[in-house]
Specification:
2 copies of one chain form a homodimer. The first copy, chain A, has helices at residues 40-53, 83-88, 121-132, 164-174, 176-180, 188-197, 204-216, 225-242, 257-269, 281-292, and strands at residues 2-6, 11-16, 22-28, 58-62, 77-78, 91-93, 99-102, 106-109, 115-118, 137-141, 146-152, 155-162, 251-254, 274-277. By secondary structure, chain A is of the alpha/beta class.
């Protein structure tokens, strides 16, 4: 089968054997934002044509390709949901030459009754669940919009998104904090200072201005500003999660090398145990869902 | 005398009588960012030349004109500081035809030892102190960088900056939240919802993403997004201030009409008493400081 994670700014395809082993893989920067209206079938064929010619006949897609800006909008599936519910809700896509299915995103509500959504991460969580079984666990998927998900009984029981990565990016690119920052290598010392600062009183909006005051008065090197800001924001993210209870077991962390490393440092700073998983846990999730689908 | 508040993006001058009464006033958009190097004396003469010709000989300036990017950098004065300390620390400016003095900014440290700074707001606080005497009070000066100051014994004893206004602006202009927002009139209902949301668990970074999820799923009208976001951020700002103790008396609020109204709504929502002061309390502060300076 072919499994595809098609996001806003990236396209990643896996060719897998019957047991979910990855035989081959394609990475492209052709995210959904670059696809013209009606252009999804052609873009897909262009990417995986050789695999189809070699006999593959089943394609499962996840990610923002299932959003309003994507190929077809797949309705969000409410939590709790696991591989069975997700497989039962896949959306068929019109594509000549292969059976093509789209994984739905998930939705959840927090204590305040405010909804939350994910697309693509549900498939990574299914990949994690494959290794965790029915145990209760907390998963962290760092990203532009980081997802923290509670897993239990082999299903995703709820989740919360933190807009950490995007907030960092707009502050660095467009606010007074960016004017202070100078390029430099990751500064773990400045990062850890930011994480610790997040535990002090004053609130995030005060801590943000403190980044500027520190820079202005010589308390923070300009080349460490970006790392300090990352630590501050990730620290606030973790504070918010801890406010709802300290997790009993290790936090399951899956993301890009750079982000997973940063989150691991921040969890360390909080004395929280974690287990890192490869970012392409999404391939395992796609294989897991594909197993349950009644293919033609 | 002539009192001037010269900020990053605006210039405001007051001609005042011996008792601090405002006789005339000039508003220009010539903030310090628009002044070429060495151009401050000429820009000042251009603005207040007619008042000098009419006999004025004393000019007192406050605001970002005293910053590194301004005319001359006036060192920050540490808190606690009141009118006497500030008047003793004014910096003389080289300007033909009038005695010209620059008000220093203030600096303070928070519980975590992180510094904070203000320039211009210290003069507004002196204006407030003129009416408050030695009483203990909490002042809120909303703006791009909102200042919350503790006043006691006729001095500013400490303060904290919240980067609320700038965070709102960059999120609306550059993040996914701005793509959801449609222009519309201020929506007090959406604003109050945002303020209440700030009191729920999850943290600011989660509440930000919730704004998107609400918009996506029809829980928030696109024209109300900007007001909801304002309420969310101002609500978090007030939550952070309240975490350090509920103020005993009314909060003294001085800012532009639009901002002061928004903060008043948010304080109402928290059941906090406040007293609004005119934004040009800065003129009163300039007159108060000028009274103590040993002019030539």
């Amino acid at each position: 089968m072919i499994g595809i994670d098609w996001g806003t700014t990236a396209f990643r395809a896996y060719r897998m054997d019957a047991r979910g082993g990855v035989l081959d893989r394609i990475d492209r920067t052709a995210g959904i934002l670059g696809i013209p209206p009606g252009g999804f079938p052609a873009a897909l064929r262009d990417a995986i044509g050789p695999w189809l010619a070699a006999g593959e006949s089943r394609v499962l897609l996840c990610g923002m390709v299932g959003s309003r800006q994507g190929w077809v909008e797949a309705p969000y599936l409410p939590c709790p949901a696991g591989p069975a519910e997700i497989a039962a809700a896949v959306v068929p896509l019109d594509f000549a030459g292969a059976a093509c299915r789209l994984v739905p995103g998930l939705t959840a509500q927090d204590a305040g009754g405010v909804p939350d959504v994910m697309r693509g991460e549900e498939t990574k969580l299914v990949g994690l669940l494959a290794g965790l079984g029915a145990a209760e666990a907390l998963a962290c998927l760092p990203g532009t919009h980081s997802k923290w998900a509670r897993l239990a009984g082999g299903r995703v029981t709820g989740f919360a998104t933190q807009m950490t990565g995007e907030t960092r990016a707009v502050l660095l690119q467009h606010s007074i904090l960016g004017r202070l920052a100078e390029p430099g290598p990751e500064d773990d010392g400045a990062f850890r200072r930011g994480v610790r600062r997040a535990g002090e009183p004053g609130g995030l909006l005060h801590h943000l201005f403190g980044t500027r005051a520190l820079g202005l008065l010589g308390g923070l090197p300009a080349a460490g500003t970006a790392s300090y800001l990352s630590g501050l924001l990730i620290g606030h993210e973790i504070q918010a999660v801890l406010a709802e209870g300290r997790p009993a077991g290790p936090i399951h962390l899956a993301g890009s090398e750079t982000l997973a490393r940063a989150y691991a440092l921040a969890l360390d700073e909080h004395g929280l145990a974690y287990r890192r998983h490869p970012d392409d846990i999404v391939a395992r999730g796609l294989a897991q869902i594909a197993e349950t689908i009644p293919w033609p």
